[in-house]
Structures are given as structure tokens and as C-alpha cells.
Design brief:
two-stranded parallel ribbon, Rossmann fold, alpha/beta, globular, 257 residues, 2 domains, single chain
Length: 257
């Protein structure tokens, strides 16, 4: 029953886009995307690079990894220009700290409340990035702004650091931007992603029950003031300079056709 529920949920989220694309190719629609299609006997592709998570002995023989692939969704008319969004405060010239709990998180008011207080402790500008406005405190400190949506990759190139949930997409964009990360993992692969970021030397991890304004501020200060962390951030960002993840992924798919 549990896996059937996963199938139903996955079909609701993924099947419309997949089947829309399949129709353009003259293919029949697919159902039970999670249970029947997740582990293909022909090819399983992991969209992360080997330097982040290399192949393991217990992986199926048909599994490969190709690299991070950026996708910010379809064009959004409500998107804010990232530089305009972070430059209109009294802290012009100081790169902000970005806080996001992920697009699928609907219950993180404690996360954003602690973010606001941490910015006040640090006297540092912050950007709260979420489309769930009910999670945002009604009154924001003068150094904190809320943005409902803007392409994360572009925003992070103007940021000093990011505090997030440990989602693989968010982690990849922060790695590419070359900025420190503070991770509060909540579910799924997030704990593992946090551990890998910490081992790379670009992040710190903090459990949700310890996510207090004082501890968040202390961790952020340690990250942004550490020259060794900043150097490792810059070094890991170099992995993206010659990235060909999209081509490698397409080559694997087309080889099956």
C-alpha cells in the first residue's frame, strides 16, 4: 500500500510533464512512474557527478552518473531580478545570506523565524526565498527581504552564503556559485547530501532541533569568515567550468534508441 501511494503521488507530480513530452514523440502515456519506471533494466542515470557521489559496489550494473543539471522550471512572470531584489536595502554592497527550505516544504515557519533573528544577530542582510508566504514572519527586520521566486542559480551569484534544507538541486547551485552552505536536513536524501557537503569542506550541518538563531548565526559567522572554507568553495566551483552533464545524459539516452 505504501508503494502504491508513492506511485499515485509521483504520477500526480511527474506524469503530466513526462506524458506531454511522450505525446510529442508519438509514444503512449506511462503510469506508475515511481514503481515501474524508476529502476529501468536498461539504464539508470544519476544526475550528480562522480566527485560528489561515486559509483558504489551495490549499485546495479546499468547505473551511471553524469553530473548536475540545472533546471529552474518554466519561465515565471513573477520572477524578480536577483540583483534588484538584493540591492534595495540599507546594506547595498554587502552580499546577503539566502535562506530557503525548498519548494516542496510547506511547514517551516520556525526555519524562517530563526533566519530573521540570525540576520539581526549578525547585522547581515538576508533574503528569504519561498513561495509559501504564510511561513514568513509578518514583520521582517530591516535587513531582511522576502522574495517569492527568482532563479536560484542567478541569485546565489550575488550571495555570501546559503542556508537550506539539503536538497540536491539547491546544493548543486550553491557549489557552482562557490559559496558556503549551512544545511538543516529534514527528509529523504538531505541528510546524506549534508554529510557529503561537510566532507567537501564547503558546509556545516545543523539538526532542526538545534536550529536556533544563536547557533545559526554562530555557524554562519564561522563559515563566511573561514578562508579555508572559502578556498574549498572556489575549488569545487571549478568542477563546473568544463561541465558537460547534459550532453553525457543525452548520449546515454540516445544510445538506447
Amino acid at each position: 500500500m505504501r508503494f502504491l501511494l508513492y506511485d499515485l503521488a509521483a504520477d500526480k507530480v511527474f506524469a503530466p510533464e513526462i506524458n506531454s513530452f511522450r505525446r510529442k514523440l508519438g509514444l503512449n502515456p506511462v503510469h506508475r512512474v515511481w514503481g515501474r519506471w524508476l529502476n529501468s533494466p536498461q539504464r539508470v542515470i544519476g544526475l550528480w557527478p562522480e566527485w560528489f557521489y561515486a559509483a558504489q559496489p551495490d549499485w546495479p550494473a546499468q547505473a551511471v552518473v553524469t553530473g548536475f543539471i540545472e533546471y529552474d522550471g518554466p519561465p515565471n512572470a513573477a520572477a524578480r531580478d536577483p540583483w534588484h531584489a538584493v540591492s534595495g536595502s540599507d546594506y547595498l554592497g554587502q552580499a546577503p545570506i539566502v535562506f530557503t527550505a525548498g519548494s516542496a516544504c510547506f511547514a517551516a515557519p520556525d526555519f524562517f523565524a530563526a533566519a530573521c533573528e540570525a540576520c539581526e544577530i549578525l547585522n547581515w542582510p538576508g533574503v528569504l526565498l519561498t513561495q509559501q508566504e504564510k511561513q514568513i514572519p509578518k514583520t521582517l527586520p530591516r535587513m531582511v527581504q522576502h522574495i517569492a521566486y527568482t532563479p536560484l542559480g542567478k541569485l546565489l551569484h550575488h550571495a555570501a552564503a546559503i542556508v537550506h534544507h539539503g536538497g540536491i538541486g539547491t546544493a548543486a547551485r550553491a557549489l557552482k556559485a562557490g559559496i558556503p552552505q549551512l544545511v538543516m536536513p529534514m527528509a529523504f536524501d538531505q541528510q546524506d547530501n549534508a554529510s557529503r557537503l561537510v566532507r567537501l569542506g564547503v558546509a556545516a550541518s545543523i539538526e532542526r532541533e538545534n536550529f536556533t538563531p544563536q547557533k545559526v548565526a554562530a555557524q554562519l559567522r564561522a563559515l563566511v569568515e573561514s578562508q579555508s572554507v572559502l578556498e574549498r568553495c572556489r575549488n569545487n566551483a571549478k568542477h563546473f567550468e568544463c561541465d558537460n552533464a547534459v550532453k553525457r545524459t543525452c548520449d546515454y539516452i540516445e544510445a538506447l534508441l
